[in-house]
Design goal:
This protein is an alpha+beta fold. It has helices at about 15-25, 35-50, 85-90, 145-160; strands at about 50-60, 65-70, 80, 95-100, 115-125, 125-135. Bound molecules: methionine sulfoxide.
Amino acid sequence: MVEEFVIEKTQSIQKQYEDLSTIIKGLLNKNDNILSNLSNFTAALKQTFDKINWVGFYMFDGEKMYLGPFQGKVACTQIKLGKGVCGTSALSRKTIIAADVNKFPGHIVCDSDSKSEIVIPLIKNDKLMGVLDIDSASLNAFDETDKKYLEYICNFLIEEIF
Ligand code: SME
């Protein structure tokens, strides 16, 4: 049984991420199916931050990335490496912050509400597993603080759950 969680939104962004990290570590369980874990991971992020309008995984199958568990509007199902923000992050293996998605070369429009985006690559034992993609309907919604904490939470996911 999962208890409902509440993160006080008047706290600093750092404290909200710290509380979220603790909740995610308690919520995910390596004995559960990976789909269940990834689904709850996206729900926890969406529930915590009002600035997120879409959050989800694109998983690498050795050739391309395909849509995984997500929260938000329907989205494109396949992304090639090197294409869009997600494919660029996957290929470079670096987190990418697109402050204005319309200025990102080759940005793939899935939800026209999305104005900015952060994508974190998921690498385990030097292998690309996929990416975590987070969109906002506001411009410039993500910064180095988001990058630091999201990379930390994704690292937990990679080390303990994948
Ligand atoms: N905008 C992404 C595509 C995925 S959607 O945002 C859900 C991109 O350019 O890679």
